[in-house]
Specification:
single chain; about 130 residues
């Protein structure tokens, strides 16, 4: 009877292992399908965002051309273009200055507070 019980237990263990293996394969397949779906979605989203950026840039160019044409009604065309060029360089300069300040604050990109906290935690555990 003991031999038969071990056989049943061995068979049950084998079945559990097979079911676990099948379940794992199905979970991996599900994860793979989900990942593929998300990658496709991200790809489409990136493509649409790029298209939107191109149209926004074209819209900005037309808006600037319209403003330049409106200025040209009051002054010479060359002066209107010069005014718009100066305004664009001014905006670029301000944005560049702000960008440099942000980049300096963000470098080096090391989580200093988290590292310090980890050191304190390690020291506390050692005590």
């Amino acid at each position: 009877m003991t031999g038969n019980g071990n056989h049943k237990l061995g068979t049950a263990a084998k079945q559990v292992a097979e079911h676990a293996s099948a379940l794992t394969r199905l979970e991996v397949e599900l994860a793979s399908l989900e990942l593929k779906s998300k990658v496709v979605s991200l790809g489409v989203g990136v493509g649409l965002a790029a298209g939107a950026a191109v149209f926004a840039l074209a819209g900005l160019a037309f808006a600037l051309a319209t403003i330049t044409a409106a200025i040209a009604l009051a002054v010479s065309v060359w002066l209107a273009l010069l005014i718009m060029t100066g305004a664009l360089f001014l905006v670029a300069g301000v944005a560049g200055t702000l960008a440099v300040g942000r980049l300096r604050r963000g470098t080096p990109p090391v989580p200093e507070k988290a590292i310090e906290e980890a050191k304190r935690t390690t020291e506390a555990i050692k005590r």
